[in-house]
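If I may wish for something, please sit down with the protein I am sending here and say whether tokens and residues agree:
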Amino acid sequence: MAGLDYIWATGRRKTASAQVRIRPGTGKVTVNGKPFEVYFPISTMRGYILQPLQVSGNMDKFDMIVSVRGGGPIGQAGATRHGLARSLLKTDASYREVLKQSGLLTRDPREKERKKPGQPEARRRFQFSKR
């Protein structure tokens, strides 16, 4: 795995961060040293991650090695998708318009809201008692 023949980018979602490295190949995907189907067992999640490849028409043209950490499965899937879209953009700038129209280059800004003091959760309040 030489570093020069890979094109890489970082994707983020919630508290997850993914380093995505792609190179021309047959569509093999490895996530944290495990096969893609083992790390992300839900098929809809795999489809969500591979959306940038489908939109740009590169379904079986790139091999992908992903290093993802932090967050949960959904956040990691979103981070991987974001990183894949950004690395595809580095391979060919003509993909920019189709990726941007699909909303794949925008980092999802939604984060977990912090818990406030004197409350059980971020927005939930203790039950009000007038007497």
